[in-house]
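User: My collaborator and I are trying to settle a disagreement about how two of our proteins should look. Neither of us wants to argue from intuition anymore, so we agreed to look at predicted structures for both before our next call. Could you fold the first one, then the second, and keep them clearly separated?

Assistant: That sounds like a sensible way to settle it. I'll keep them separate. The first protein:
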Amino acid sequence: MSPIEKKEDVQAHFDSIAKDYDKWKQKNAYYYNNLKGFIKRIVVPGGRVLEIGCATGNILASTQPSRGVGIDISEEMIKLAREKYPHLEFLSTPIENFKGDEKFDYIIMVDVADHVYDIMDVFTAVAHHCHPTTRIILTTISPWWQPIFTLMEKIGAKMPEGPHNFVEISNITNMLELLDFKVNFSGYMLLFPKYIPIFSYLANTIGVRLWGLRRLSPVQYMVIQPSGKNEVNLRLGCSVVIPCYNEEGNIEEAIRKIPKMGKYTEIIVVNDGSKDRTAEKVRALQKEYQNLKLIDYSPNRGKGHAVQKGFESATQEVLMILDADISVPPEELPRFFNPLNKAQAQFVNGTRLVYPMEDQAMRTLNLLGNKIFGQIMSFITKQNLSDTLCGTKAFYKNDFKFMKMGLDKWGDFDFLFGAAKLGSRILEIPVHYKSRRSGESKMKTFRHGIHLLCACVRGFRELVVDTPDETLNLSSRFPKFWKFDTDAPSERETKK
């Protein structure tokens, strides 16, 4: 593998291997299918997608974009891509010469940093095609694997790489910070890039998540977005959903303390089959608050169902949850809204484990269990999560449409797993956790702890076990020994 001296060297190399490019991909299908599967998990179908270094267009086509543009420095690669996928647009040009002001929702850069003359020039050009919430998905080869890949090329087991850079994640991170990008999250994948039954599965699902082993993986990945340092203001509105079950002693105070956020603040109270006067209190307040909605149904279906119904009724761009017991002060909600309005994150999660709690705000066993679940969820999602069960969360309505509900009865894990699948940056915000003003906690330590553990197993299956590559898909070998009833009963809903 030779160093890159000029762009023409890279172009000549990829022109020379274009006719055999897809054959090389098929020969190492396990490796490339996993790369493609990683991209497909993050890119939501129907988006506007730009792929830089698209080669023959396979990854771009797999994302099912509403508008797909692929660019590559190799004219021969582009000719093949146009033949295979005539419904997409392909251009032979370096990204530095890509003209126009078009903005994309996703920009894919698979092994691009390995083959460009100047990485900072590339990202300077990429910035021109980003809006504030664009997600850039980048993979690159770990430099520690250079001797192994060189040997594989010599024995004909791997596609010739040609002129090649070798950079670590830390090098790219430093460049991105200088260019006003930020890394949502990063990591390693494909600890063992060849398929051996069971062994490859264990290495690429468990081993790649272990601190001592993951840095040995050949593939480094990053999900990146513009940093928002220039105080981007998207001028969004906010829908605050308050799920309620027997909260007549708290609901009025919760509603009155919600501050105005963004261009419009909508409050949606979901009365989840309460047996007290919660609904009556909300109806009385609707005369005073024109932005207050009530969803009222019976019987009780649990917090997760109530939150889902509220979100489905929401009209604003940012969705937020506030627990009716006001254990998290409503006055702190703007701390959740502002990072989304400024495009600094795609998901904001509250953490109650920073500031001291009021006496009895969280029982000792609940606190211990929460810390344990934080470690489990961090392992599964590959993001740092300290408090997974804080009821206050906020994210974009557009992302909610692609989140699967039903893993846990509260919805907390559903949203965190969904954010991880979408490649969102999860930002944790410390909150002051107070004792509930009235009523009793709905959390039962042991019974609900087992329920949440089952939700973690189901999340593990979805994020780790179930992969687009059928050679890794072991879900059929795992018995479904738990089941949650998701059939909706007859409901009585009133909305204003």
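The second protein, kept apart from the first:
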Amino acid sequence: MIPDYIYILSFIGLGIFFVGAAFTVSWLIRPNPPYDPVKVAPYECGEIVKGNSRVQFNVRYYLFALIFVIFDVEVLFVVPWAVVFKQLGMVAYIEMLIFIFILTLGLLYAWKKGALEWQ
């Protein structure tokens, strides 16, 4: 039993060695960073840069994307259910109604809170 683990540990050791060697070699042969201010300045199609390049987005975009993902996942559950609807019976129908009702409550809550408005 011990010799089996020796093979596994040797593979792990070789993996760590090769990753470490790759990082070491890349650190040794990397080019020196340019210190010319023209080379390190951001290039925006020949325009002079004004201000900071970091743009802070509004939180509403993330909320809208999160709501989209939630309802996109809903489709992943509803479409296969609809394909085999006749085979599942009435219990599956009631379960899907409850699932859609809960998601509808979430949509109404987001709508009431104003998460779907772009203003």
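Some points you might bring to the call about the second protein. The first helix runs from residue 2 to 29. The mean pLDDT is 84.
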